[in-house]
Amino acid sequence: MTLTESKDFSHLFSEETKARKPSPLKTCIHLFNDPNIVFLGGGLPLSDYFPWDNIHSQSPLPPFKNGIGSKITGLKDDTLEYVVSRDEKVEKADIPFKKSLQYGATQGQPEILEFLREHNKLVHEFNYSDWDSILTTGNTNGWESTLRIFCNKGDVILAEAHSFSSSLASAEAQGVITFPVPIDSDGIIPEKLESILDNWTPGSPKPKLLYTIPTGQNPTGSSLSDERKEAIYKIACKHDFIIIEDEPYYFLQTGPYLKDLEQRKKYEDQQEQQNHEQFLKSLAKTFLSLDTEGRVIRMDSFSKVLAPGARLGWLTGSKKILQYYVSLHEMTVQGASGFSQSIINGLLQRWGQDGYIDWLKGLRSEYVIKRNNAIDYLHEFLPASGPFTINPPIAGMFFTVTIDATAHPDFKTKFNSNPKAVEQHIYETIVKNGVLLVPGCWFITEGETTPPQPADSKQIQNPNEIFFRGTYAAVAAEKLREGLKRFSECLKEEFGF
Amino acid sequence: MTLTESKDFSHLFSEETKARKPSPLKTCIHLFNDPNIVFLGGGLPLSDYFPWDNIHSQSPLPPFKNGIGSKITGLKDDTLEYVVSRDEKVEKADIPFKKSLQYGATQGQPEILEFLREHNKLVHEFNYSDWDSILTTGNTNGWESTLRIFCNKGDVILAEAHSFSSSLASAEAQGVITFPVPIDSDGIIPEKLESILDNWTPGSPKPKLLYTIPTGQNPTGSSLSDERKEAIYKIACKHDFIIIEDEPYYFLQTGPYLKDLEQRKKYEDQQEQQNHEQFLKSLAKTFLSLDTEGRVIRMDSFSKVLAPGARLGWLTGSKKILQYYVSLHEMTVQGASGFSQSIINGLLQRWGQDGYIDWLKGLRSEYVIKRNNAIDYLHEFLPASGPFTINPPIAGMFFTVTIDATAHPDFKTKFNSNPKAVEQHIYETIVKNGVLLVPGCWFITEGETTPPQPADSKQIQNPNEIFFRGTYAAVAAEKLREGLKRFSECLKEEFGF
Questions:
Q1: In chain B, which residues have their Cβ closer than 8 Å to the Cβ of A90?
Q2: What ipTM was estimated for this complex?
Q3: A249-289 pLDDT, tens per residue?
C-alpha cells in the first residue's frame, strides 16, 4: 500500500515559528562539499585541532547473559570493547569525531538517525509517508522546543490533571495556559476530554496541543490502553489539536503486578522466553502508530534506558513539522553533543538492532523486580483494608498510594476539613521519619482559563483523595523496603491503624 | 581589598523570567544526599545500568612540542592516555560517569566549573565579589537563553551594525528589535553609541542589552581596543544596559599583520618566547575585567579552541543573574552532555592550567600562520591601489575585503547605482568561478524601530562600500591560496584591472 503524505498543520504554529527566517548562511551550505568550490564561507576549525585521536570504551556485550547492571569482567564473553576514531570509521556506520565534533547536522548525524529510524520501524506502524526523526538533547529540550514551535503567550494546551511538574512549569513560564484533563487510574478519560472540547466556550481559543505521558505516567504511574488512545486520537482529529506523546518510560512496560507468587513466576517465565518479535508485540500501541495525518509528535529519550546525562533523545513525526524544529534548534541547542552521538552510536551499531532489543528486554526484567518489590513491601506494611489504596503500575518508575484524607482522626478539627492540609502534614511527618515520597499536589495542572471552561477536572476527581508518588528506580531493594516501612508506619500511626 | 557585591539588575528581566517559578521538586532535592533519608522522590535510573564502564582517550600531551594539530605517535613524549571511569575517580578531580551521566547539576559538574573559575582568574580581573561561571551547551545556547532571560517581544537590543547573522535572527524570531550600532574598522564607535542613546526618542523603550563580539568580530574581523571598551562600559552604566560579550575567538589573538618579513619574524619570535604570564598579559582587556557592577555577561566556548561539536561553553557574570539562567536551563537544555563534561574535564585536569595555556598559545601560532597566509595571498593577487581594501584582522578566523562599488564600470548602468546589486552580482560570479566568500549584506543588523531612532548607522557608513567575508580557519594553505586567487581574478576582471 502506498502511503499518503501528512497534512499541513502550519495553522497551529506560533508567531515565532512563522517569523523565523532561515539563516542566509544556510543558503550556501550545500556548496561546502562541492569539490569545485573552495569554501571560505564558514568559521570551522580544522579537525586536526580536536585533541582526541580516538576514544576506547568498555561496555556490556549482548545478550547480557548476567543481566543488565551486572559488573562486566573485561573478558570476551560479556565485554564489548570498541573504538571510535577522530579520523576514520572503525566500523562502517561509525561517526568519526572529525564529523561529530564539527559544526553542522543540527538534526543529528546520519548514522545514528538511520539506526533510530530502523528502530522506529520495529516499534511503530507508520501510516503516512513523510515521517522522520531528528535528535534532541533530551525530552526537556524536545518539550521546550514544542512549546516554542506551537504556542504564543495566552494559548491553551491540555495535559493530564496531574502531570510532570517541570513540563507544566515550562509552559506556564512562557505564558501558556495548561488546562487539566480528567484522569482515573488508567490515565486520560476520553469521554471527559471530548465533553470538555465539545463544550468549550465559543470564541475562546481552543487548545493547540495535548501533552501526555501515555506509559508509566509521571506522577500517577498509569498507562493508557490502546482503546483509550484510539478514542483520544479521534478527538484530536475532531478538535484539531496536536498530540505530544512524551515516552521516556515506554520500554519499562513491566506488565501487571501479580500478588500470587505462582502466577507471577509463570508470567515472568513467559516474559523471559519472549523472542524479540513477541517482546515488541507485547508493547502498548503508540499514538504514532495510530496517526494517519501527521498530528502526533513523539518524544523518545535515552535518559531512562541508557543514561540521562547523555542528553540525547529524538523526535518522530511529520517532516513538514520537524523541519521547523531544526530551524529552531539551529538557534538554540545547535545540536546534540558530538561525544554523545559518536559514543552512543558506536555502541548501538555494534550491538545492532537485536542487541539493543536485548538490552531493553533485560532492562524490563530489572524493573519488573523493582516494581514487584515495592508493591510487595507496601502490601506487607499497610493494612489490607482502610483508607490506603496501593496502585501498582504496569510500566515506568513510579507507584502511588492514594489516601482518603477524611479518614484522618483530626480531619475536621486540626485540618479544618482541608485534604491539602492533611497531605502537607503527612509529607512533613514522613520526612521527619526518614523517608521522602512526593505529595500529589506538586503535580497539579492548574492554569487559569479566561473564560472559565466547563468540566474542570477538579470537580470530577474526589477532592478528599490525596496521594503520594514514590519511585523504585533509584534505590536498592533493602533500602526501598526500609523506606516503605517508614512510610507505612507513619501512615498507620497518623490514621490510627 | 574587599570587593563589594554586584548590583541588582532584575528590573531588566523579561516577563518570562519574572514568571518562572522554581520547580517544587527542587525544594526537596537537598535531602537526596541526607544519610537519614530514604529518598524515593526522583526517577533516577541506577548508574549500574549505564553501559559504559570506562572510556579511554588518546590525546596530545603538553607542551605539544610538535605544534597543535600534528599527529601524535602514541608514545610517551607526545601522547596523553587517560581513562575516565563510570564508578571511580581515576584522578582526584575526575567526574565519574555515574555522576555526569546522571540527572542533576544543571549549572555543570563542580570539577569542571572549578577548573574554569581558576582559568577565569588567570584571564580576567574581577571587581565585584559574587561572580561565578555556569556551563552552557555553547554560545548559541548562551545567547538564546540571554534573550529569554532579559527580553520581551518588542524590546530593543543593540548590536554591531554588521553582526553574526544567527544571533540577530534568533533575536528577531523572538520579536526582539535589533538596533545597529555604527562601527568602523576597529569595531563599535563609542561616540556614536553615546549619541544614539543620548538622543533616544523619549518614551520609546531603551535598549536592554548590547550584544557584541569584541575580538575578531564576526563578520568584520575587527577587535575593540581597551580604550573603546572602557568608553562603552561607561555608556552602559549611564544608560543602564547589560553588555553581552560573545568571545569564541578570544584566544585567537594573532596580533598585527606585518608585511615586512623581517619585522614579522622578529614579532613571531617574541610571541613564541612569551611565558604564560606574558602571553596572558598580551591579551585584550575584557569587558568582564572592567565590570564593577555585574552588568557584563561573558560567553566563552570550547567550540573554537577544542571542538565545536563538544557543545560546551560557559557564562561568567554576577551570581544574581546567573541563577536565573540555571532555572531556565532546568526547563530547556537541563545541562551539558555528561560525556562532554567528563571527557573534556578529564583532559583539562591532566593538562592542568599550564597545559591548557600551552594549548591556547600553540593554537594562536597556528592562526598567525593562517592569517598571514591569507593576507599575503590577497596582497599577491589584488592590485595595491584601486577600489579594493584588504582588512587584516588582529584576531579571530575572518578577514574582509571591502570594495568601492561605484568603481564597477557598470555601476550606473546595469546596476542602477545600487551597491547591493553589485554585491549580489560579485557573489554569483565568484561562486561560478569556484570560490565562496560571504557577502557583507548577509550580516546587516536592521530591526525596525518604532518610533525611528536617530543616528541610524546606515547613514554613517559609506553606503557604496560593500564587503566580502572570508575565513582562513577551515582550509589548508594551498587551497586557501587557490581560493583567494580565484576570488581576486574575479574582482580584477569585474572592475577592469
A1: none
A2: 0.96
A3: 999 999 999 999 999 999 999 999 999 999 999 999 999 99
Q: Model confidence over B396-405: pLDDT tens digits? A: 999 999 999 9
Which chain B residues touch A103 with a CB distance below 8 Å? Answer: 303, 308-309
DSSP state of A57: E
- Which residue segments constitute the domains of chain B, with CATH numbers given? 10-364 (3.40.640.10), 369-495 (3.90.1150.10)
Q: How many CB pairs under 8 A join A and B?
A: 353
- Rounded CA separation A387/A494 (Å): 11
Which cell goes with B98? 555515574
Taking a C-beta distance cutoff of 8 angstroms, is the pair A122, A354 a contact? no
* Cβ pair A46:B473 closer than 8 A: yes
Question: What are all long-range contacts of A421-424, with beta carbons under 8 Å and residues at least 24 apart?
Answer: A422/A466, A423/A466
The pLDDT tens digits of the residues spanning B378-398 come to 999 999 989 999 999 999 999
Contact between chains at B475 and A310 (C-beta distance less than 8 A): no
CA atoms within 13 A on the CB side of A486: 23
Cell readout for A178 is 495548561
Partner residue opposite A40 with nearest CB, options B307, B343, B435: B435
Q: How far is B91 from chain A (nearest CA, A)?
A: 18
- Find which of A37, A339, A373, A431 to mutate to test the B interface (most B CBs within 10 Å of its CB): A339
Q: Is the pLDDT of residue B458 over 50?
A: no
Task: Return the H-helix or E-strand segment holding A160.
Answer: strand A156-160
Closest CA–CA distance from residue B2 to any residue of chain A (Å): 38
Cβ contact B172:B178 at 8 Å: yes
CA distance B195 to chain A (A): 31
With a pLDDT cut of 90, the percent of chain A lying above it is 91
